[in-house]
Amino acid sequence: MPALYVVATPIGNLEDITLRAIRILKEVKLIAAEDTRKTHQLLSHYGIKTPTTSYHEHNKLTKLDYILNRLETEDVALVSDAGMPGISDPGYELISAVQQNKIQVVPIPGPSVPITALAASGLPTDSFCFHGFLPAKAAQRRRWLKSQAEVKSTLVLFEAPHRIADSLKDMREIWGDRKITVCRELTKIHEEIFRGSLSEAIDHFTSPRGEFTLIVNGNQEEPKPEMTGNVAQRLRQMQKSGLTAKDAITEIAGETGLSKKEIYREWLSIKAKGKSKIE
Predict the structure, then answer these.
(1) Is residue 216 classed as helix, strand or coil in its secondary structure?
(2) Which residues, at least 6 apart from 238, have a Cβ–Cβ distance to it below 8 Å?
(3) Are 264 and 245 in contact (CB under 8 A)?
(4) Could you tell me if 122 and 212 lie in one domain?
(5) Strand order of the sheet with strand 154-159?
């Protein structure tokens, strides 16, 4: 039964390809490529003579029927310029259409820019959010950054070199001076992995070139404890039981993290209200 093979290809260094990927690209009857010229460089390097057809952002819908027709009788491979197809690259629509037509989709794992950058970042990897490219327009970008300000997971983002300076400044203004790892030209000759604060990154990337992946620490601030009705009720009960203000405040501060001054103010307020009721 024919299948669509979703094949990960090198993100820079041509040696970063699996033996399985090479075999599949040789065996399929057609390769749908985001940029056939770039894919031909990879195919030529490994002596792969499989025919290619373009499948990119501007023809991804018009090419659907052609590729689906080919898949009725033969295997097709889908590749992007770099990494795993469909991850911030064309591919989602084709994969979805293939599944709807009850055709098998077979992923061939391999290089991925977001995962490679995250693994090298030194920032928490147990929970992360990948968002692709930041909005290009400044107002939209700032709105999006504000919407993510409380996210605690590590954030993985792409950014263009001509916008990275403004994006880093907006991040620092909206998120504070967080830790960041900036990966530039991963696995290529001029690979650079910068680790530091947003301020240090702004000072470092004064003439940015290449492809950028940003790994930004999530919001690590602990929520500020607040005086709640339950705390006030506890204080009232402590007053009725005859507990001293000092002991009550110490106990509540240890349990809640509230400041002793704030608890003392609430203690006095409760006491004053109690007196007014008696009078």
Answers:
(1) strand
(2) 248, 251
(3) yes
(4) yes
(5) 128-133, 154-159, 212-216, 179-184, 192-197
Q: Using one digit for the tens of pLDDT, what is the confidence trace for 122-134?
A: 999 999 999 999 9
Alpha-helical runs (H) found in the chain: 19-27, 36-45, 64-71, 92-100, 113-121, 138-147, 164-175, 198-204, 229-241, 245-256, 260-278
For residues 76 and 5, what is the distance between their CA atoms, to the nearest angstrom?
A: 6
Domain containing 154: what range? 114-216
Residue 137 has pLDDT above 60, yes or no: yes
221 is a domain residue? no
- Across-strand partners of 157? 214
Domain boundary among 111, 138, 157: 111
**Ramachandran bin of 245, using left for φ above 0, alpha for ψ from -120 to 50, beta for the remaining angles:** alpha
Quick check: 234 and 252 in contact, CB under 8 A?
A: yes
Domain check: are 125 and 211 in the same one? yes
